[in-house]
Amino acid sequence: MKRGIKRKVKKETKALSPVIATVLLIVIVVIIALIVFFWIKGMTQEAITKFDNRNIELVCEDVDFEASYTPTTGLYITNFGNVPIFGMDVKIIGEGSHTTEDLTSYPDWPDVGLKQGSIFAYEKFPDELPADAEELILIPVLIGESESGRKTYACNENQYGVRLSVNN
C-alpha cells in the first residue's frame, strides 16, 4: 500500500508542476512586455509646439538674432526675427571646461523675452566672466505649448548658436 500512496503523490506533484510553469511563463512575458513598453515610452519626447501646432524644433530655423560682446561695452543681443526669444543660454568656454548660464536670471532681461526688434544690453557682463573665458556661445531658448502646459526649449547649439570671441 505504501507504493500506491507514493505513486498517487507523485502524480499530483507532476500535475501541479505544469501549472506553476505556465503561470511563471505568463508572469515573465508580462514583465518583459512592461519593460519594453516603458523603455520605448522613455525614448519618445513630449511634443512642444508653437505657432499653429508647428514643432518648436522647426521654429528654431526662423530665429534670427545678432549678438556682440566686448569687454568695454558688454553683451548686446538684437532680435531681428519674427520669433520671440524667451530666453538665452550662454555657454562660457574656458581652458578645458565650460559653464552655462541662463540670461533670464539677469536683472535686465525682459520678462516676456526679446520680441522682434528688441535689444538686450548688459554692460556688467564682463565683470561676471571667469578669468579664463575664451569664447561665448549664445543659444536661443523658445517657449511653446505641450500637453502638460508651457515648456521651454533650447535650440540646437551647433545649428543655431552664435559664437563670440572673448578678448580679455
What labels would you give this structure?
168 residues; alpha+beta; Immunoglobulin-like; 5-stranded antiparallel sheet
Describe the structure.
This protein is an alpha+beta fold and 168 residues long. It has two domains: 1-44; 49-165, Sandwich (Immunoglobulin-like), CATH 2.60.40. 32% of the residues lie in helices and 32% in strands. Strands 5, 6, 8, 9 and 10 form a five-stranded antiparallel sheet that branches. The radius of gyration is 30 Å and the shape is elongated.
Topology:
Layout: H1 2-43, E1 49-50, E2 54-55, H2 56-59, E3 65-70, E4 74-79, E5 87-93, E6 98-102, E7 119-122, H3 125-128, E8 135-146, E9 149-154, H4 157-160, E10 162-165
Antiparallel strand pairs: 1-2, 3-4, 4-7, 5-6, 5-8, 8-9, 8-10
Can you summarize this structure?
The chain is of the alpha+beta class and 168 residues long. The protein is built from four helices and ten strands. The protein folds into two domains: 1-44; 49-165, Immunoglobulin-like.
The low-confidence runs, each spanning 5 or more residues with pLDDT under 50, are: none
Main beta-sheet strand count, sense and barrel state: 5 strands, antiparallel
**Rg calc:** 30 Å
**Mean of the pLDDT scores?**
79
| Helix fraction bin | 25-40%
Total number of helical segments? Answer: 4
* Approximate strand percentage: 25-35%
Estimated structural class: alpha+beta
